[in-house]
Structures are given as C-alpha cells and as structure tokens.
Write a structure and sequence with these properties.
Length: about 220
C-alpha cells in the first residue's frame, strides 16, 4: 500500500454524507443489563457525490481512482464544510481561519489515549498574542503535523489572554504527540481509502458522467 497524493479538487463535490463509526461490543447479562465496551477508535468516512461532469472534468478523477487500486492505496481528501472550521473572530464576526493559519501548536507532550490537549498560538508579525479568542467550535476537526488521524473538537476552544488554550478532542489520540507539533484546523485533509473495491462510473448518452465515492479513514 502507498500514499498517492491529494484527491482532485475540481470540479468539487455536490453533496456529502459524513459518517462516524465507533465499534462497540454489547453483551447482555441474564439480568437484562447490557454491558458495553470499545477498544477501537472512531473512524470517519462518508459518501461524496459529484455533480454530473463532462468528460474533460471526469477523466482526471477516473485516472486518480485507477491509482488507488481499490481500497489498497490511501490519499488525502478535503471534505466540503466538514473540513472547514466554523469559528469566527469575536470582534469582526469573520472566519478566523486566515488569522490562526500557521499559528496553532501543541504545548507539551501528550500520550496516546489523551483527549485533552494543551495548545498555544504564536504571536502575529507585530508580536500580538491571539488572546481571548474562539479558536475552534465544537464539531470542528483538526489534524496534527506528522499524523494522519483526524480528531474532532468536543467543545468550543477559547484562548486565555496569553494565547494558550485546552483542546478537547474525540476520539482519544491514537498515537503520542510531541511538543510544538503544528495543528491544521481548517481545510483539514482526511487520510482515506476507497471503501469499495468495485467502482462504477455512470456514462450517460448526453456525454456527462455521474459518479460518487465511498471513503473511510485509513488508520
């Protein structure tokens, strides 16, 4: 298996069905009580549908799909809306993505399984700390540098006056974090594989093509 790059961004998806899959083992006792446990992480996935495409639009996508060899090879894909942060500047009300881009970092080492991550923000070019700001909204996703797993913020993330914050995530870390790892918080790429080995391409008589993909996170 291999990483083959970033999924084509054009012409973009028409609709997205996003999924979260956490395997839970259930055992029912004689008393009727259901005992529940899990030893796996949450895996994200979804069905991504394209609008009807021209041959020129579709053929690069078909060529990329050929490189996946079914579910063998993995790729990064940015999922519309899901990959975008919903946090806004508390003063202007505008998206905060451009303000915090390249300024979010892990503060200290964290172990696999941790769900509470200390983070810090670099000052801007003028030396101003990003204090008293909402960095992320609950439901936003993040990815740490050097890691392929994506995590979801389980609460709103607010900085203190010095630009520090606590990032609460689900699921817990699948691998440890080191100090000062960069954090991507908008246009977050998911590391995916195709969830089906058989791919069907809907070639229409009006020369347009219909296509959708089922993807699941590669852990």
């Amino acid at each position: 298996m291999a990483y083959i790059g970033t999924f084509p961004t054009s012409p973009g998806f028409q609709s997205v069905n996003f999924s979260m899959n956490t395997s839970t083992k259930r055992t029912q006792a004689a008393s009727g009580r259901i005992i529940r446990a899990t030893n796996s992480t949450t895996v994200f996935g979804g069905t991504l549908q394209f609008p009807p495409m021209t041959q020129a639009e579709f053929r690069p996508i078909q060529a990329f799909i050929a490189q996946t060899d079914g579910g063998l090879n993995e790729f990064d894909i940015v999922i519309p809306t899901v990959s975008e942060s919903q946090a806004t500047d508390i003063v202007t009300g505008q998206s905060i993505a451009s303000i915090i881009d390249g300024r979010l970092f892990v503060d200290g080492a964290h172990s696999a399984g941790d769900t509470t991550i200390n983070i810090t923000t670099l000052p801007d070019s003028a030396g101003t700390a990003l204090g008293d700001q909402v960095l992320l909204k609950a439901g936003d996703v993040v990815r740490f540098a050097g890691h392929t797993k994506v995590y979801m913020a389980s609460t709103d993330i607010n900085t203190d006056s010095a630009g520090g914050a606590v990032l609460n995530i689900k699921p817990g870390l699948v691998e440890a974090l080191t100090d000062e790892e960069a954090i991507t918080s908008t246009n977050v790429p998911f590391r995916m594989i195709l969830n089906n080995d058989v791919q069907e391409f809907g070639y229409r008589t009006d020369e347009l093509v219909e296509y959708e993909i089922d993807v699941i996170e590669a852990i």
